[in-house]
Design goal:
Elements lengths: L1 E4 L17 E3 L5 E4 L20 E6 L10 E6 L11 E3 L19 E4 L15 E9 L4 E10 L6 E5 L3 E15 L2 E5 L3 E5 L5 E17 L23 E4 L10 E7 L2 E7 L6 E6 L4 E4 L20 E6 L6 E13 L16 E9 L13 E4 L9 H9 L5 E13 L4 E2 L1 H6 L25
Parallel strand pairs: 1-3, 10-16
Antiparallel strand pairs: 2-15, 3-18, 4-5, 5-18, 6-17, 7-23, 8-9, 8-25, 9-14, 11-12, 11-13, 11-14, 13-19, 15-19, 16-17, 20-21, 21-24, 22-23, 22-24
């Protein structure tokens, strides 16, 4: 159990004033933290009267009867029913949910995009979200969506939560602050953030413009993958995930709260900030993680292991060994395998692979896959190195080699990913991507022993 106290100020003035910062380490831990001394009840969850006139309330991220229930007890200035009123349907036209299959779009193919460019518009976390692909069904809580965010403006007295999904945020440019009910999380490139389903937050720009990737997970929560024979160490270590300390707002100002529910967006008006949790304890909380702390493992003699060894987080499905989503990281590492083609091999996969480049150069595609860009190789469609990558790796001197200046990732899902109209018609699609394999040569020679 981690316990931490913090000064009571969070953002009791306009954004940036009197902000409490701090984190508690661990993934899936039971945390406890209070922003006022004695705000957290001892030895029980629901006392007859809470200190400071607070209200006790539980936020549940799983069913009560789950094998390991995830829930957090919050002690807040107002119960959440006071943060909810009559809702008006609003439209966020670029944020789509599955099932979303436009009639005039073909998702069958290998696709790659240049970075989605910034604009001169004021774009917040909500108005700057651009859905690229959807998969599964948000109503039955299976599958996912992938997005690009373009954020130039902070949300002012405006708040959001998704009842549909958990969000995995992968920054590529700029710095963002997530002011959540449970505390403050700051992220920048080479960080990720996990925002649980149902958590209320506001997003502020610390350094802009900000651009990055989002995996919207409709299904079971992300968890650390089972390590099997790898054992207890390397990959992503639980201690490197950070949860925020308690911090709260006590502000009587006109505000709005937007909710994403079954793929639709609704807004309600409030007279105060909903970020009023003074203390909390539990294991359902936002997290941040520094991708530079990920310790990759690999072959040290021959052959190229499956990319599943680079899994940072996995969201399980109902089928053992098959993920609803895997979040996979390809970062700097040593290549040492003998008599081995070292880049990713040619393959077809039952899983759909959406990749993004955070910085640097990806080894299987030395040209064209630029930082901020994305690619999609849908289920059972072949892909692999282009000719230059193949020839280079096939003829290289196989000395130990440091693969450097690279960090890319993959959102992999068991569902086919369908392009949105934005991805097909507005995003900077590389029309010639499919041609990167056209100059691969036939090398077959039937001579026995010929390589």
């Amino acid at each position: 159990m981690n316990r931490q106290s913090a000064p009571h100020s969070m953002i009791q003035a306009p954004s940036g004033a009197g902000i409490t910062e701090g984190y508690m380490p661990g993934f899936g831990n039971d945390f406890e933290t209070e922003a006022l001394p004695g705000a957290l009840p001892e030895g029980m969850n629901s006392p007859q009267k809470c200190n400071y006139g607070l209200y006790g309330e539980q936020l549940s991220g799983t069913a009560f009867t789950d094998v390991r229930p995830e829930r957090t007890w919050c002690y807040r200035i107002r119960p959440s029913v006071k943060h909810s009123g009559r809702y008006n349907r609003i439209d966020l036209p670029y944020w789509k949910s599955a099932p979303h299959i436009p009639e005039d779009v073909t998702s069958l193919g290998q696709y790659r995009w240049d970075p989605v460019p910034h604009t001169d518009q004021d774009l917040t976390w909500l108005t700057g979200m651009r859905t690229m692909t959807t998969a599964g069904d948000v109503n039955t809580q299976v599958g996912m969506a992938s997005h690009i965010y373009l954020v130039t403006a902070s949300m002012k007295d405006a708040y959001f939560f998704s009842a549909d999904s958990e969000l995995l945020v992968v920054p590529q440019e700029g710095r963002l602050r997530f002011c959540t009910e449970l505390g403050i999380i700051d992220v920048e490139p080479q960080d990720i953030a996990i925002l649980p389903r149902g958590l209320v937050y506001r997003v502020e720009v610390l350094e802009g413009p900000a651009r990055g990737f989002v995996c919207e997970n409709y299904g079971a929560k992300f968890e650390l993958p089972g390590r099997g024979p790898i054992g207890a160490n390397c990959m992503a270590n639980p201690r490197d995930f950070k949860a925020p300390v308690a911090a709260f707002e006590d502000r009587e100002v006109p505000s709005t709260l937007t909710i994403k529910w079954c793929g639709q967006f609704h807004e309600t008006d409030l007279g105060h900030s909903p970020l009023d949790v003074v203390a909390w304890h539990g294991n359902y909380a936002p997290l941040k993680y520094d991708l530079k702390t990920y310790c990759p493992v690999g072959a040290i003699l021959f052959d190229h292991p499956d990319p599943s060894i680079f899994t940072v987080l996995t969201a399980p499905s109902g089928q053992p060994g098959v993920a609803n989503i895997d979040f996979v990281l390809f970062r700097e590492r040593w290549m040492v395998a003998e008599d081995t083609f070292r880049p990713p091999w040619y393959h077809k996969n039952i899983m759909s692979e959406l990749m993004g480049n955070i910085y640097g150069q990806y080894d299987a595609k030395p040209k064209g896959f630029v930082p901020g860009g994305m690619s999609l190789h849908n289920m059972m469609l072949p892909h692999g190195p282009d000719k230059n990558a193949f020839e280079g790796a096939s003829n290289a001197e196989l000395e130990p080699h440091k693969l450097d200046n690279t960090m890319s990732f993959m959102f992999e899902t068991r569902f086919p990913q369908h392009l949105t109209l934005f991805a097909a018609q507005e995003a900077p699609l590389q029309d010639d991507y499919i041609d990167c394999w056209t100059d691969i040569e036939k090398k077959f020679d039937g001579t026995p022993g010929k390589k």
